[in-house]
Design brief:
The protein has helices at 3-7, 32-46, 49-56, 62-73, 80-102, 163-176, 181-192, 196-207, 230-236, 255-263, 267-275, and strands spanning 8-12, 20-26, 105-106, 127-131, 138-147, 154-156, 159-161, 213-223, 245-252. With 280 residues, the chain is of the alpha/beta class. A hairpin with a 2-residue loop joins strand 6 (154-156) and strand 7 (159-161). Helix 7 (181-192) runs antiparallel to helix 8.
Length: 280
């Protein structure tokens, strides 16, 4: 059993809402080994291991590695806006880890690798995945929200809502959008690699997206002690605009502490990883 399935349980709930609910809960406590695992996932969501290896070569200067990460890769942690970006990036990475571990979906690309500005969130759908087979038939659109106080409504008065409703509105924009920007991006990437078969697959997704089955998922990573079921009741009362709709609820004890610990000294994770590799 790996680190994630040893920590979390993933289970579909007996249906009592119009949408499908998946509950993800902890059955073991977080330890330092798990923190290190999550740190690696963060580091390699921004860049691949091969990228880091070629960038630094065999001259593994600790100060240079840390400076590069801080100055070029990791979002700052100074202002409230910086903290929101870090929290959002963490949630997107964590959601991808869970989807990869507990579902049979294929995730084509780590979205954070195409950040232009490290201190800003990446625009567009948080996560896109496909059925895991040679022929794509289903496209899954995920809107990911990480909240320490999910029981508090957000937004401007009088249009304040619980976070599932806000996530639903973002997904609705994806459903109505005539463009598929991430598929356009993947198509260009594969053309540049001269992998024309893969490029054609994503080209068809751009041209004929209406021919594919679309599934929408609200993915909530929440502080367990602040969660209240009423936040789903507001979502239930919305007009049925998205179908099929899934809601994954990940409840974590001391979520803010976990996020903070994951970012603390994260540069050392890359230093250790690179030093343990054989020289190129």
């Amino acid at each position: 059993m790996n680190k994630i399935s040893n920590w979390l349980t993933y289970k579909k709930r007996n249906r009592n809402f119009s949408f499908e609910i998946i509950d993800v809960t902890e059955h073991n406590k977080v330890d330092q080994e798990l923190i290190a695992f999550l740190q690696e996932k963060i580091i390699f969501s921004y860049r691949t291991l091969d990228f880091y290896k070629h960038h630094f070569g065999n001259d593994l200067n600790e100060k240079e590695i840390k400076s590069y990460l801080i100055e070029q890769i990791l979002p700052k942690n100074e202002s409230d806006l910086d903290k929101i970006v870090r929290q959002g990036d963490w949630g997107e990475i964590f959601a991808q880890v869970i989807v990869s571990e507990f579902t049979e979906l294929s995730i084509p690309s780590a979205k954070l690798r195409w950040k232009i500005n490290k201190d800003k969130s990446v625009f567009g759908t948080d996560l896109i995945a496909f059925n895991d087979s040679d022929t794509i038939t289903d496209i899954y659109y995920f809107e990911i929200k990480t909240r320490y106080k999910p029981n508090i409504k957000e937004g401007t008065t009088p249009n304040r809502h619980y976070i599932p409703t806000i996530a639903h509105q973002s997904l609705l924009k994806d459903a109505m959008s005539p463009t598929e920007s991430i598929f356009n991006y993947l198509q260009m990437q594969y053309y540049e690699k001269e992998d024309y078969n893969s490029a054609k697959k994503y080209s068809d997704l751009v041209k004929n997206s209406k021919l594919y089955s679309k599934i929408f998922e609200i993915f909530l990573i929440l502080e367990k002690s602040k969660y209240q079921e009423k936040i789903l009741e507001e979502l239930e009362n919305l007009p049925p605009s998205l179908s099929p709709l899934n809601v994954t609820i990940v409840l974590i004890d001391n979520l803010q502490e976990l996020v903070t610990k994951t970012w603390d000294d994260i540069e050392n994770t890359l230093v250790s990883k690179l030093r343990n590799l054989p020289p190129t």
